[in-house]
Specification:
This protein has four domains: 3-125, Rossmann fold (3-Layer(aba) Sandwich), CATH 3.40.50.2300; 148-309, P-loop containing nucleotide triphosphate hydrolases (Rossmann fold, 3-Layer(aba) Sandwich), CATH 3.40.50; 313-394, Helicase, Ruva Protein, domain 3, CATH 1.10.8; 403-462, Arc Repressor Mutant, subunit A (Orthogonal Bundle). Strands 2-1-3-4-5 form a five-stranded parallel sheet, with helices on both faces. Helix 13 crosses helix 15. The radius of gyration is 29 Å and the shape is elongated. The protein is of the alpha/beta class. 30% of the residues are buried. The N and C termini lie far apart (81 Å). It has 21 helices and 16 strands.
Length: 464
C-alpha cells in the first residue's frame, strides 16, 4: 500500500489524518515539523507527503526545498489555514502537486490524495518504461557474445547500482564511452544528465572553466556567469574521458572536488555543492604513470575505486562477425540498402589485427558499404591494409632472435620510427601526425621530447 507522511505541528490534525487514511488502507507516518519529516524521509522515502505550510523550526516550503535536492519526485500536497498567493506560487514552483486550505472537506482531500497517487503511479510507470528502453538501447550498442564481453555486461549491471567512481581502461576504439553511458542508463541517476568531456581536448585553463564554470569578469571574454559541467551534471553522471591527459595542476583541483564534493567557479569566492557520479576513462597506464610521477597516486586511487578493463578486439576476435553484421545493418539503414558480406571478405576481417579496435572496424565497414555497388561486400571494397595482411609475414618480421633482444630498447626504437614516419607523411604537422597515430597531440609532444626529435619535427614542417 502507498506510504503517506503527515507533517503538521498540531497533534490533533496528525491524529485526524492518520485516522482518515489508515481507514483508506494507507501506511502512515507522522512528523511535527519539516526537519523531523526530512529525518524520517532519509530513513525511508514516502509515496506522498501531506504537509502544513506554517510550522516552527522548519516550515513546509523550506522542507520541500531541501527535499527536492535528494528526492525530487516525491509527491506533496500542502494544507494551511493561512492561504496566500505567494505561498501557493512558491510551493508549485518547487514542484508541489496540490494546495488545500484549512479547514478542508475530508472527501475533497481524499479525492486529491487519490488523484495525486494515481499521477505518481503513472509517472513511475513511464519512468520505468523509459529506463528499460534506455538500458536495452545502451547495452545493445555494446556488441559481443564472447566470455570477456559477457563479463563486462555483468560488471556494468553490478556497478550501476552503486555510487562509487569507476575507471574504464582500454585501448583507443574499444568503446569506453559506450560502457560509461550504459552504467549511467542502468543507474538510479538515469533520469539525470550524462555529461561527457574529453580532458585531452582542452588546455589547462579552458578545462578548468569547462569543468567548474566561471563568473562574469573573471577573465577576458567572461561576459556572463557560466555553469560548469560538474554543476550541470548534478545528481547525474560526469564522464571524464582521456583523464590521463590532465595536467598536474588540474589533477590537484579535481582531487579536491572528489574529496569535498564542492566546486569553485573560476573567479568566484563561494563554493557550490555538487552531487555528480564520476566515471573516468583512459587508454594510458595510470598505475605506471603514478609510479613515474606524471599522474597523482592519490587521484589514481580516488578514481579507480571500481576498475573496468575493456579487452582489445584482437582478444575477442569471435565477436568480429557479429560486429561486422551490426555495422552493415547500421549503415544500410542510413541509405535504405540491403547488403551482405562475402565469406572471403569476412575471413579477411576476422584474420586482421585491429589496432584501432571496434572504431577502426566500424570505419572500415562504413567505407565498404559506401563503395559496394552490388548486393554483397567483396574483398575489393576493403582497404589495402586488410586485404594485404599476412599473419605469417608479420610473424617472420617480428621473430625473436635466438640470442634474445633488449625489448625496452627495441620498443623505444620502434616507437620513434613510427613517430618519425607519421611526421614525414604529414610534413611535420603534429596534429595530423597525432591523428595518424590515434593519440592526443599532447601525447605526441611527450614522445617528441622523449626521443629528442622536437627540433626535427620543426624542420619537417619548415621544409628544411
Amino acid at each position: 500500500m502507498p506510504n503517506l507522511l503527515i507533517v503538521d505541528d498540531e497533534q490533533s490534525f496528525r491524529q485526524l489524518l492518520t485516522l482518515i487514511f489508515e481507514g483508506e488502507g494507507h501506511n502512515l507516518r507522522t512528523a511535527s515539523n519539516g526537519r523531523e519529516a526530512l529525518e524520517l524521509l532519509a530513513e525511508e522515502p514516502a509515496d506522498l507527503i501531506i504537509s502544513d505550510v506554517m510550522m516552527p523550526d522548519m516550515d513546509g516550503i523550506e522542507m520541500l526545498r531541501e527535499l527536492r535536492s535528494t528526492q525530487p519526485d516525491t509527491g506533496i500536497i500542502f494544507m494551511t489555514a493561512y492561504a496566500s498567493v505567494d505561498s501557493a506560487r512558491e510551493a508549485f514552483k518547487l514542484g508541489a502537486d496540490d494546495f488545500i486550505q484549512k479547514p478542508f472537506d475530508v472527501e475533497e482531500l481524499k479525492l486529491i490524495v487519490k488523484k495525486t497517487l494515481e499521477k505518481q503511479e503513472l509517472i513511475d510507470e513511464n519512468r520505468a518504461f523509459k529506463r528499460a528502453q534506455r538500458e536495452r538501447g545502451s547495452v545493445s550498442n555494446i556488441i559481443g557474445r564472447s566470455a570477456k564481453m559477457q563479463a563486462i555486461y555483468q560488471m556494468i549491471e553490478t556497478v550501476a547500482e552503486v555510487q562509487s567512481t569507476v575507471l574504464i581502461t582500454g585501448e583507443s576504439g574499444t568503446g569506453k564511452e559506450l560502457v560509461a553511458r550504459a552504467i549511467h542508463d542502468m543507474s538510479p541517476r538515469a533520469e539525470r544528465p550524462f555529461i561527457s568531456i574529453n580532458c585531452g581536448a582542452f588546455t589547462e585553463t579552458l578545462l578548468e572553466s569547462e569543468l567548474f564554470g566561471y563568473v562574469k569578469g573573471s577573465f577576458t571574454g567572461a561576459n556572463t556567469n557560466r555553469k560548469g559541467l560538474f554543476e550541470a551534471a548534478n545528481r547525474g553522471t560526469i564522464f571524464l574521458d582521456e583523464i590521463g591527459e590532465m595536467s598536474p595542476a588540474m589533477q590537484v583541483k579535481l582531487l579536491r572536488v572528489l574529496q569535498e564534493k564542492r566546486v569553485r567557479p573560476v573567479g568566484a569566492h563561494e563554493e557550490i555543492s555538487i552531487d555528480a557520479r564520476v566515471i573516468a576513462a583512459t587508454n594510458r597506464d595510470l598505475k605506471q604513470m603514478s609510479l613515474d610521477g606524471s599522474f597523482r597516486e592519490d587521484l589514481f586511487y580516488r578514481i579507480s575505486v571500481i576498475p573496468i578493463t575493456l579487452p582489445p578486439l584482437r582478444e575477442r576476435s569471435e565477436d568480429i562477425p557479429e560486429l561486422v553484421n551490426h555495422f552493415i545493418g547500421k549503415f544500410c539503414d542510413q541509405t535504405g540498402r540491403q547488403l551482405t558480406i562475402s565469406p572471403k571478405a569476412m575471413q579477411m576481417l576476422e584474420d586482421y589485427v585491429w589496432g584501432g579496435n571496434v572504431r577502426e572496424l566500424e570505419h572500415t565497414i562504413e567505407r565498404a558499404v559506401a563503395l559496394e555497388r552490388g548486393n554483397e561486400i567483396q574483398p575489393e571494397r576493403l582497404p589495402d591494409n586488410v586485404t594485404n595482411y599476412n599473419p605469417e609475414r608479420i610473424k617472420a618480421e617480428f621473430d625473436l632472435p635466438d640470442n634474445g633482444l633488449n625489448l625496452s630498447a627495441h620498443l623505444d626504437n620502434l616507437e620513434k620510427t613510427y613517430v618519425l614516419e607519421a611526421l614525414r607523411k604529414t610534413s611535420g604537422n603534429q596534429t595530423k601526425a597525432a591523428d595518424l597515430l590515434q593519440m592526443q597531440v599532447r601525447s605526441l609532444r611527450h614522445l617528441l621530447d622523449k626521443h629528442n626529435i622536437r627540433a626535427l619535427s620543426a624542420q619537417m614542417r619548415n621544409g628544411d
